[in-house]
């Protein structure tokens, strides 16, 4: 395994998570040494999907560790997949010392973490995210979940991984659309950041990408990812179970984004596209409420536009206004009957609760 380029340690309540950012994928023996510095080495149970199986195979080498290969995509985020993971571990004779290793995007990491959290009342967990979204967001912070009754992440647990390995090499095979999803999360972290370093870096990274591949950016992507990890990690440390107001800041763009996804019809607008559009709407709302200064709103919109996202309102794929408002009001994020939004502030962002009948909300779309 290459030497980590960055290393972070976070404490999420009772759980400690170590994050390593490196160029290459970890090799089996190195991974095992990281997980268990001293023998005996409990068995590892790998989980991947059909698109990340080759990456998992490279890590496993010729080791005979069990591996559960799931179908790819959100449709696989089901009880049945959790059962398949649990059955793989059981069939391999793994006990309470089982160590689950997820190699994949947010779907594989959410599923594996969920399964690990319930296997014999709690196995151990390592996540190796292979999408930009997984690296910038899903793998860190302990939220696990499956979709049930048509509702995303209806069932889940909090179960942070003890080790998270981000390897830039694994992004080489990522399809273009998946890059766009992940970039939205990096932009979100940049808006949440108080000092503006990542915001400036995201602008520079975009210029670098316009000239060539994202990997040519002189370490720009790596630095951006590292900063995004740090920002999310510190927010979750302050509010690991989202009982306060800190962790909810990570929902920036999501209230509008989920309403867009629902009103457009699920699957018509990608999650990244919806969140990016939602962040622009959040800027407009913040400005109408006197929280987001005009130049900050413009800077947010221009950055999102520069990455090729739709910024116009109404979004061309949005359903009718009534359906959108219904979806906005029906979002999970509610407080005292009001919809909760995160809006960009002069520095960082702020949480607000708003009655959707408020004319300042009505005038925005
Ligand atoms: N737990 C959290 O805090 C959190 C945060 C954000 C999102 N999520 C969850 O993450 C999921 C979305 O994650 P995602 O965008 O990574 O989707 P995903 O896991 O479905 O991956 C997207 C696609 O890319 C493929 N893929 C993954 N890595 C690849 C690689 N290196 N090369 C080629 N193909 C690859 C996958 O097989 C899949 O087809 C959602 O279910 C969402 O709820 C969780």
What is the compact description of this entry?
The protein has 365 residues and is α/β, with parallel strands linked by helices.
Keywords summarizing the entry:
alpha/beta; Dehydroquinate synthase-like, alpha domain; 2 domains; three-stranded antiparallel β-sheet; binds nicotinamide-adenine-dinucleotide
Beta-strand portion reads 15-25%
**What structural category do the secondary elements indicate?**
alpha/beta
Question: Which strand order spans the largest sheet, edge to edge or round the barrel?
Answer: 1-2-9-6-5-3-4
The DSSP helix count reads 13
Residue windows where pLDDT falls under 50 for at least 5 positions: none
Helix share bin: 40-55%
Distance between the termini: 50 Å
Integer-rounded radius of gyration:
20 Å
Which H/E pattern describes the elements?
EEHEHEHEHEHEEEHHHHHHHEEEH
Please render the helix and strand layout as text.
Layout: E1 6-12, E2 15-22, H1 28-35, E3 44-49, H2 53-60, E4 67-70, H3 79-91, E5 99-104, H4 106-118, E6 124-129, H5 132-138, E7 146-148, E8 151-155, E9 163-167, H6 176-192, H7 197-211, H8 220-238, H9 254-264, H10 271-288, H11 294-306, H12 321-329, E10 334-335, E11 338-344, E12 349-354, H13 359-362
Parallel strand pairs: 2-9, 3-4, 3-5, 5-6, 6-9
Antiparallel strand pairs: 1-2, 7-8, 10-11, 11-12
Helix pairs in contact: 3-4, 5-6, 6-7, 6-8, 6-10, 7-8, 9-10, 9-12, 10-11
Overview of the structural elements:
- With 365 residues, this protein is α/β, with parallel strands linked by helices.
- A hairpin with a 4-residue loop joins strand 11 and strand 12.
- It folds into two domains: 6-174, Rossmann fold (3-Layer(aba) Sandwich), CATH 3.40.50.1970; 232-362, Dehydroquinate synthase-like, alpha domain, CATH 1.20.1090.
- It starts with 5 loop residues before the first strand and ends with a helix.
- The longest helix is centred in the middle third of the chain and has 19 residues, at 220-238.
- It has helices at residues 28-35, 53-60, 79-91, 106-118, 132-138, 176-192, 197-211, 220-238, 254-264, 271-288, 294-306, 321-329, 359-362, and strands spanning 6-12, 15-22, 44-49, 67-70, 99-104, 124-129, 146-148, 151-155, 163-167, 334-335, 338-344, 349-354.
- Nicotinamide-adenine-dinucleotide binds at residues 49, 51-52, 72-74, 77, 104-108, 110, 130-131, 133-134, 137-138, 141, 143, 152-153, 170-171, 173-175, 178, 181.
């Amino acid at each position: 395994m290459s030497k980590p380029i960055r290393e972070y340690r976070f404490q999420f309540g009772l759980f400690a998570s170590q994050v390593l950012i490196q160029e290459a994928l970890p090799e089996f023996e190195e991974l095992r040494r990281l997980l268990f510095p001293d023998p005996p080495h409990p068995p590892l149970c790998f989980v991947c999907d059909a698109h990340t199986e080759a990456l998992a195979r490279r890590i496993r080498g010729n080791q005979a560790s069990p591996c559960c290969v799931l179908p790819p995509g959100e449709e696989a985020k089901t009880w049945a997949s959790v059962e398949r993971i649990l059955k793989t571990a059981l069939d391999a004779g793994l006990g309470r010392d089982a160590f689950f290793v997820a190699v994949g995007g947010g779907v594989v990491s959410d599923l594996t973490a969920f399964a690990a959290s319930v296997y014999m009342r709690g196995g151990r967990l390592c996540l190796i995210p292979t999408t930009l979204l997984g690296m910038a967001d899903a793998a860190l912070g302990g939220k696990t979940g499956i979709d049930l009754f048509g509702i995303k992440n209806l069932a889940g647990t909090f179960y942070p991984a003890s080790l998270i390995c981000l390897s830039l090499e694994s992004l080489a095979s990522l399809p273009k659309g998946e890059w766009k999803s992940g970039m939205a999360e990096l932009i979100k972290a940049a808006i949440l950041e108080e000092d503006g370093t990542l915001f400036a870096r995201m602008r520079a990274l975009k210029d670098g990408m316009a000239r060539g591949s994202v990997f040519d950016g002189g370490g720009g992507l790596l630095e951006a990812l590292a900063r995004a990890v740090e920002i999310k990690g510190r927010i979750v440390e302050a509010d690991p179970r989202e009982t306060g107001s800190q962790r909810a800041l990570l929902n920036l763009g999501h209230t509008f984004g989920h309403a867009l996804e629902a009103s457009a019809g699920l699957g018509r607008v990608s999650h990244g596209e919806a969140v990016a559009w939602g962040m622009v709407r959040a800027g407009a709302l913040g400005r109408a409420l006197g929280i987001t200064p005009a130049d900050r709103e413009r800077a947010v919109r221009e950055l999102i536009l520069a990455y090729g996202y739709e910024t116009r309102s109404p979004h061309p794929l949005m359903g009718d206004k009534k359906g959108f408002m219904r979806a906005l009001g029906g979002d999970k994020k509610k407080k005292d009957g009001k919809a909760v939004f995160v809006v960009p502030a002069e520095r960082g962002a702020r949480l607000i609760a708003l009655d959707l009948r408020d004319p300042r909300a009505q005038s925005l779309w």
